[in-house]
Write a structure and sequence with these properties.
This protein is an alpha+beta fold. It contains 17 helices and 27 strands. The strands form six sheets. Strands 16, 17, 18, 19, 22 and 23 form a six-stranded mixed beta sheet that branches.
Amino acid sequence: MFSRRAQFPGDAGAPSAARRFVRATLARARRDDVADDAVLLASELCENAVLHGGTGFTIELVVLDGGAVTITVTDQGPSPMELRRAVQPGGRGLTLVDGVADAWGSRHDRRGHHVWFTLGTVEPDPPARTVEAPTSWPDPERTRWLAHLPLADDTPLPVVLTELTRRLGDVLGAAGVAVLLDTETGTEELAGCGDRTKHAEVVVPLPLTPPRAGRVVVHGDESLATPAAAELAELTALRIALAVEADTQHNADRERWMWMTYLAEATEMFSNSLDVRLTAAIVPQVLVPRLGRWCALHLLDPRGRLGLEAMTHVDEDLLADLRAELAPLAEPDGALCVLLDDGADAAALGTPFDGVAMPLRVGGRAIGTISVGRPGERSHRPEELLIVTELARRAAQAVDNAQRDSAHVATSQALQHALLPRAMPKADGVEFAAAYLPESTGADVGGDFYDVLTLGADRWFAVVGDVCGKGPRAAARTGLVRDVLRVLLRDGQPLQRTFELLNEMMLEAGDPSQFATVALAMITRQQTDPPSVEVELVLAGHEQPALVYADGNVSYLGRHGSAVGLVRRFAVHPTRHVLLAGDTLVFFTDGVTEHRRGAELFGQGRLAKALRRAGNRTADGLITAVRMAVEDFSAEPHRDDIAIVAVQVPAARATR
C-alpha cells in the first residue's frame, strides 16, 4: 500500500497546488492511468472547500495493493461539504464525483468534513438482465419529437418547461401535465398545461441536485398507468431537470459576475479620493440600496471614541430618526464598542435596526465599524453577508489610506509654514510684502523660501531662495539655509563672508544635488528727505530682482554669482543700489519666469510688462499684479513653487 498526505491553506492558489500534488503522487505510484480523473475530482472538492467552505483543507491519497486509488479531502467548513455544494450558486454538487468515481462517500467528525472517492477498482460484470419491451410503446417518431427540443440558449426556462409538458401530454394523450418544485414555503408549480384537476396517474421525481426536489405529474384516466407512460415521463423529467440545472447554473454565473463587477466598481470608487470625509461619505452610498435599506459608518477618533462619520437611508425622511437610534450604539458600553472590544467578525443588530454590524480593521488594528440594515423585509442572504464583509475590508483599507494621507499632508503643510516667516516687519519709510504659492497643497514640501528679518532700527535683510528638489530633504536643507543666514547676519558678518561660510557648510553635507540659489538684500534706511534706502544686493546663482521705479519703468539689478553648495571655487559679487520714494524692489523665484504655456515660458519680459502695467501700486498690489499675470498667461498647473518678496519706499513720504 502506498499513501501520501498534504495540507493546503484556504487561498485561491490552493486548488492548483493540490492538483499538482495529486498528479505527482500518482506518477510516483505508477497510476498515471487514473491521474486525469483523480485530478478532476480532487480539484472539484478542493475548490469547494476554498470557495464555499472558506477554509484550508487536507488531501490524503492511498493506493491499495490491488491498484485502487482512494482520495479523501477534509475541510473544516461550518456545514457538510455535500450540503454546501448543493446550495451554493453555480455548484454542480457531487454529481461529477458520482458520475466518474467507482465509489464515493462522506463522513463528519470532530476533525472536519471528509469526502472520499475511489478510482481503478475491478468489479465483475453484472449478470445480464432481460428487459421486456413494453407492450404498447408510442410511435418512435413522436418519442424522438418529445425528447428533442431545439431551443436557443437564451430561451426563458418557463417557455422550455411549458413546451416539454405540452409535448408529454400530447404523446401520452393526458388531460394535463404539471412540473412541481418543493420549496421552503410549500410547493411551486414551475410549468403546466391542460386540465390538472383530474387524478394524477403518473408521478415521476425530478432528478435534481439535493436538497432540491420536485416531480412531474401526469393527470388523466387509468389508461395512463402503463410502463411506457412511466418511461416517457421519466425521460421528460430528466430533460426538465437538465433545463432547470442549466438555468440555475446560468443564473448563478450571472449573479457571480454581477457581484464581481459590483466589487470592482466599489473598490474603484473607494480609491478615487484620499480625503477622509469624501471616502467615508462614499462607503454608505455604495452599499445602499444594493445590500440594505440603510448604512452607517463610524470611525474612531484620536481618543479612541466612535463617532458617526457618514450614513444614508433609502428614505431620506428617516435619516434623523436613524441618527438618533444609532447614537446609543456608539457609546462606550454600546453594541458597536462591544463589537470592537470582543474582536468579533460581526454582530447582529436587533429591533429597530434589523441589520448587521462589522468592524473595520487594517492589519489587525480597528479603525471603526460599518452597520447595514437588512434589504427590504428579509434578512441578508449568506452571499450578501460575504459581499458586505469584503466591502468592509476594502472600505477599511481606503479609509486608512485617506487618514494616512491626511496626516502626511497636515505634517507637510505644517513643515512648509514653519519654513516661512510669521509676519512682515513694520517700519516707517519702508514697506515689506511677500507671497508664497506652493506647487500643490498636498504632501509635497517645496524648496522655495523667503525671509525678512529686522537687524536694527534702520536695517533689515530680505532673502528669496530656491533649494534644488522637493520633499523632506529639500525642506531640511531649506530650513538650514534660512537659519544659517539669520545667525551669520545677526552676528554682523559681511555679505561676502556670509555666503562663503554658507557654501562651505552645504559642501560639508556631501550632497551636490542639494544646492541652492539665493538672492539677498541688506536694506538700510537713509536719513534723507525725501526718504530713501540703500540696498546691498548679492545674487548666488539666483535670478535678478526687478526694480520698479516710481515712474513705472522696470529694470533688473545685480550681478550673478555662484550657486550655494555646488562648487568650492565660490564667488559672489555684491552690488549697491539706492531706492527712492515710490521705488519697489521685487524678488522672485523661477516658478514665476518658468511658468509654462506648452513649450513657451512666462519669462522676464512678461514680468516687466506686468510690473509696468501695475503702475504705482503698493508692495502688496505689485505682488498681486504678478500673480494675476502668471495665472492669466497659462491655466496649466504650476510645475514649481513661487515665492515673491517686495521692498518699497512709499511714495506718500515724498509728498509729506
